Amino acid sequence: MKKFLGYIRLMRPANVVTAIADVLAGMAIAGYFLGQQDGFWLGGPASLSYIPVLLICIATICLYAGGIILNDVFDAELDKIERPERPIPSGLISRNAAAIFGGVFFFIAIFAAGLYSDEARYLAVAIMVSCLVYDKYLKHHAVFGPLNMGLCRGLNLLLGISIVPGMVQQLWYLAIIPILYIAAITMISRGEVHGGNKNTLYFAAALYLLVIGCIAGFGIRNSQVPLTAFFLVLFAVMIFIPLFRAMKDPTGPNIGKAVKSGVIALILMNAAWASAFGIWPVAIVITILLPISLLLSKAFAVT
Is 295:13 a contact under the CB 8 Å cutoff? Predict the structure, then answer.
């Protein structure tokens, strides 16, 4: 049982839930559920298939798990010093076993995405490559590291959008917004162990505001202001309260709390995305993921 829990800890289950929120938001943006609100909860009309939804959700779960597991594989030596309690440096799980575990997740992800479409498969491969490049080469680069990590999330949003053929080519630019947001969180996370830099935190706050403004802009354009504003306010509260505390006292624990809140708050950001495009049932489903992620975060580390 202890080893089993070690494998679960490697996956960061609370974070995996946020990846599901990404693709559900992408599906809403693409209009997959458009006009299906009345029948959403009962399965919708016969023309609406939930099999693609399931396949893409399986793909994103496995992509995130594979990426985060291999992150720990590549970080094994550093974690012996900074995070010796993690499963690999503690000796609970061997580095080779963890590498195989992560590789299996990547295989399942690409297979599941490919069962739906070639476009989804290509995006899954792109996410896998981006994860590996970050894990192996760019993690500690001041500029390209955060951007590469953001790219993984941006591509994940596009993976959800790919549920409607041809929409990725039309909406590819939306990936820029999660790229900026995750880049901000990644920059902040550099101070989790030894403390952070206030200038970095201020810059991250500016990126947070830019992201909120962009999503609000889509809500205004699509005449979806009230519900979009509701989710954006919740999102802002969740990310800014711990960030302001870290600005006042940029110690490792405060930085860690800001990072944890920022990651889990992705769920509310994705709910705001779905709201901005008028798909309120998906926004509610995404929001239901928040307590699940918070509960898992109490049992398993987020960072």
Answer: no
Task: Please tell me the pTM assigned to this model.
Answer: 0.92
CA 138 to chain centre: 18
Can you tell me the distance from the alpha carbon of 10 to that of 67, in angstroms, rounded to the nearest whole number? 10
Burial class of residue 41 in the structure, from the number of CB atoms within 10 Å of its CB (0-12 exposed, 13-18 middle, 19+ buried): exposed
* Domains with residue ranges and CATH for the chain: 2-299 (1.10.357.140)
Q: How many CB atoms lie within 10 A of CB 44?
A: 17
Residue 130 to residues 22, 212, 229, 236: CA-CA distances in angstroms?
16, 25, 32, 28
**Which residues fall within 8 angstroms of residue 96, CB to CB, at 6 or more apart?**
none
Give whole-number Cα distances, 2 to 10, 15, 73, 242, in Å: 13, 21, 19, 32
Instruction: Record the tokens describing residue 301, joined without a space.
Output: 């580390």
What size, in residues, is the chain?
303
* Each residue's pLDDT tens digit, 240-294: 999 999 999 999 889 999 999 999 999 999 999 999 999 999 999 999 999 999 9
- What is the distance, to the nearest Å, from the Cα of residue 77 to the centroid of all Cα atoms in its chain? 26
In whole angstroms, what is the distance from residue 267 CA to residue 239 CA? 12
CA 65 to CA 62: how far, in whole Å? Answer: 5
